[in-house]
C-alpha cells in the first residue's frame, strides 16, 4: 500500500531523531525503485544526476524541469524524497517562497537550499542574502502547514572556498534562520566533520560521500553524523560503466565490457 505524503514526511522526520542513515541519490525512477528494493529508508534527488540524464550540465535545469522530476520521483516510490532544490530557482526572496511552495506541492519530504551562485568569480552568496533565502524557504514551509523538512547547505568546500570557519558560521546562521538539518558538501576529514557536528548540535548534519573516502557508515555515525548522501556518485558510477563499454566498442571493437552483466530477466523481475 502506498504511503500518503504526510506519512512519508513523518517517516522522514523520524529517521532524523537519532542514529545515522544512508540517503542515496537516484537520478531516475528505475534507480529509485532499485534503491527501495535494497532496503533504504529514504531517498534524495540529485540535480547533477538528473541533469546528466537529460544531456545537460549540473545547474542547467529549469525550475519547471526540476519540479516535474520531483513529482515523478515522489510518485515512483513509497519512500520519502528529499529534493535537491539548488538555490531556490530565483534571485528574489519572494521568488524563493514561490519556488519552495511549488516544490512542497510535489509531495517531497525535505527541501535543500544552497548558498552557491553559479558564478566562478563569486561562487557564494553574501551571508545576509543567503540567510534571507533560508528564511524565505522557511516562510513557504510554514505557510504550507506541512512538516516538510528544510535543509540549509553551505557550499564552501563544494565551490572551491574551503574555509571551515566560514562554513560553520554559515551553517549556524542557517540553523538560526529556520533550517531543520544542515549540510556542508565537500567536507571530508574526520576533524572537519566532527567540528561541524559539534557546532550544529543538536540539529542533524548531513555528510556527502561522493569521492574517495576511507570513512565507513559506522565511523560517520560515531562522529555524530545523522544522515549520509552520495550526490551524483551513483549516477557517475553508471555513466562510468557506460562510457567504458561504449569506448571499447568504438576504439577496440570488442564486447568485453558486456561480460558478467546483470541479466535482463533480473531487471525485468525487479520492475514488475
UniProtKB/TrEMBL annotation:
<keyword id="KW-0670">Pyruvate</keyword>
<dbReference type="GO" id="GO:0016829">
    <property type="term" value="F:lyase activity"/>
</dbReference>
<keyword id="KW-0479">Metal-binding</keyword>
<dbReference type="InterPro" id="IPR015813">
    <property type="entry name" value="Pyrv/PenolPyrv_kinase-like_dom"/>
</dbReference>
<dbReference type="GO" id="GO:0046872">
    <property type="term" value="F:metal ion binding"/>
</dbReference>
<dbReference type="Pfam" id="PF13714">
    <property type="entry name" value="PEP_mutase"/>
</dbReference>
<keyword id="KW-0456">Lyase</keyword>
<dbReference type="InterPro" id="IPR040442">
    <property type="entry name" value="Pyrv_kinase-like_dom_sf"/>
</dbReference>
<protein>
    <submittedName>
        <fullName>Isocitrate lyase/phosphoenolpyruvate mutase family protein</fullName>
    </submittedName>
</protein>
<dbReference type="InterPro" id="IPR039556">
    <property type="entry name" value="ICL/PEPM"/>
</dbReference>
Amino acid at each position: 500500500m502506498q504511503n500518503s505524503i504526510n506519512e512519508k514526511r513523518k517517516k522522514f522526520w523520524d529517521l532524523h531523531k537519532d542514529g545515522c542513515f544512508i540517503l542515496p541519490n537516484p537520478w531516475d525512477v528505475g534507480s529509485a525503485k532499485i534503491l527501495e528494493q535494497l532496503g533504504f529508508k529514504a531517498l534524495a534527488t540529485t540535480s547533477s544526476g538528473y541533469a546528466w540524464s537529460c544531456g545537460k550540465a549540473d545547474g542547467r535545469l529549469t525550475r519547471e524541469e526540476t519540479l516535474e522530476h520531483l513529482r515523478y520521483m515522489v510518485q515512483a516510490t513509497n519512500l520519502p524524497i528529499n529534493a535537491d532544490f539548488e538555490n531556490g530557482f530565483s534571485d528574489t526572496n519572494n521568488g524563493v517562497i514561490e519556488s519552495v511552495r511549488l516544490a512542497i506541492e510535489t509531495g517531497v519530504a525535505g527541501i535543500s537550499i544552497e548558498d552557491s551562485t553559479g558564478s566562478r568569480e563569486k561562487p557564494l552568496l553574501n551571508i545576509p542574502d543567503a540567510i534571507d533565502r533560508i528564511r524565505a524557504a522557511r516562510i513557504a514551509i510554514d505557510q504550507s502547514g506541512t512538516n516538510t523538512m528544510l535543509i540549509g547547505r553551505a557550499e564552501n568546500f563544494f565551490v572551491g572556498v574551503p574555509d571551515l570557519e566560514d562554513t560553520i558560521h554559515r551553517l549556524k546562521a542557517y540553523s538560526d534562520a529556520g533550517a531543520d538539518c544542515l549540510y556542508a558538501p565537500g567536507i571530508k576529514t574526520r576533524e572537519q566533520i566532527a567540528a561541524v557536528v559539534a557546532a550544529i548540535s543538536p540539529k542533524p548534519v548531513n555528510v556527502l560521500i561522493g569521492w574517495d573516502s576511507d570513512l565507513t557508515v559506522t565511523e560517520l555515525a560515531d562522529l555524530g553524523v545523522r544522515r549520509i548522501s552520495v550526490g551524483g556518485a551513483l549516477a557517475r558510477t553508471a555513466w562510468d560503466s557506460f562510457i567504458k563499454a561504449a569506448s571499447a566498442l568504438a576504439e577496440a571493437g570488442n564486447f568485453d565490457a558486456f561480460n558478467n552483466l546483470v541479466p535482463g530477466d533480473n531487471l525485468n523481475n525487479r520492475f514488475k
